[in-house]
């Protein structure tokens, strides 16, 4: 990869080609990913984000905030600005969609999470059988449009509702 992708370029590639993303722990892994032509790398904020960004200057880097550390959007935004200053191109935020929206309004390239999140299993259960939130079921559940009713749409098992799930 000779030039770092932008969010616009990544979005434009949707449906046209498959992208690759690898979780990296350190600068050596980041450099190896860049040499292998990996499109995107992701790490968490407790890694040396600055060294990872320097080791893979042409690879899109997402840095994840640690769950349970930030109690509101202001704290998450402050941490995100620091990660972007260290070289992150985007931020993964494990907080509520309200915080993700707040970060977006401030111009922070951010992604959240819809569906089963292991550290939130007390809301839905889950574990060995795994929870799936609509990814094989109704196409409407595959987008963020169905977030507010996601708890009602959860099912246990491997298929969509009616295919062995309950």
Word description of this protein:
The protein is of the alpha/beta class and 166 residues long. The protein folds into two domains: 7-111, Phosphoenolpyruvate-binding domains (TIM Barrel), CATH 3.20.20; 118-156, no CATH class. It has helices spanning 7-12, 27-36, 49-55, 73-86, 97-105, 121-124, and strands at 21-23, 40-44, 60-64, 90-92, 110-111, 131-132, 155-156. The strands form two sheets. A five-stranded parallel sheet has the order 1-2-3-4-5. Strand 2 (40-44), helix 3 and strand 3 (60-64) form a beta-alpha-beta unit. Helix 2 runs parallel beside helix 3.
Figure out the total of helices: 6
Q: What Rg, in angstroms, do the CA atoms define?
A: 17 Å
What is the number of beta strands? 7
Per CATH, the superfamily of the largest domain is Phosphoenolpyruvate-binding domains
Kindly list the characteristics that best describe this protein:
2 domains, about 15% strand, alpha/beta, disordered C terminus, five-stranded parallel β-sheet, single chain, two-stranded antiparallel ribbon, TIM Barrel, about 170 residues
Summarize the structure.
This protein has 166 residues and is α/β, with parallel strands linked by helices. Helix content is 30%, strand content 13%. A 5-stranded parallel beta sheet has the order 1-2-3-4-5. A two-stranded antiparallel ribbon has the order 6-7.
């Amino acid at each position: 990869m000779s030039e770092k992708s932008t969010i616009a370029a990544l979005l434009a590639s949707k449906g046209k080609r498959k992208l690759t993303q690898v979780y990296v722990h350190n600068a050596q892994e980041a450099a190896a990913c860049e040499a292998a032509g990996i499109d995107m790398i992701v790490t968490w904020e407790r890694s040396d984000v600055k060294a990872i960004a320097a080791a893979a200057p042409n690879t899109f880097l997402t840095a994840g905030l640690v769950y349970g550390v930030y109690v509101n959007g202001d704290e998450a935004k402050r941490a995100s600005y620091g990660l972007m200053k260290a070289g992150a191109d985007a931020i993964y935020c494990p907080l509520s969609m309200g915080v993700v929206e707040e970060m977006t309004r401030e111009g922070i390239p951010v992604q959240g999470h819809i569906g089963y999140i292991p550290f939130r299993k007390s809301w839905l259960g889950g574990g060995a059988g795994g929870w799936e939130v609509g990814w094989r079921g109704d196409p409407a559940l595959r987008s963020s449009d169905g977030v507010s009713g996601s708890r009602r749409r959860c099912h246990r098992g491997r298929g969509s509702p009616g295919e062995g799930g309950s």
